[in-house]
Amino acid sequence: MYQMDPAHSGRSPYVGPRKPLLLRTFNTSVVPTPDPVFDSADIQSSAAIAPDGTAYIGLHNGTLFALRDPSSAGNQLAARWSFHPPGGSSWHATPAIGSDGTVYVGFSTNNASPDAEGTLYALEAPTSGIEPVVRWSVDLGPGRQTSSPTLGPDGTIYAMGGEGRLSAISPAGMVLWSIQSGPTLKSSPALGPDGTVYVSSMNGKLYAIAPPAGRQQQASVRWAFRFAEFPGRGQSVVSHSPPAGADGIGSGASPTVAPDGSIYVGANNSNFYAVSPDGQLEWQFQAEAEIAGIWSTAALSADNATLYFGANKGGMYALNRLDGSLRWQYPIVGSIYSSPAVDATGTIFTGSTVGHVFAIDGSSGQLLFDYDAQAPIWTAPALRPDGSLLIADRLGRVMLLGDA
Question: Would the pTM of this model clear 0.90, i.e. be above it?
Answer without folding.
Answer: yes
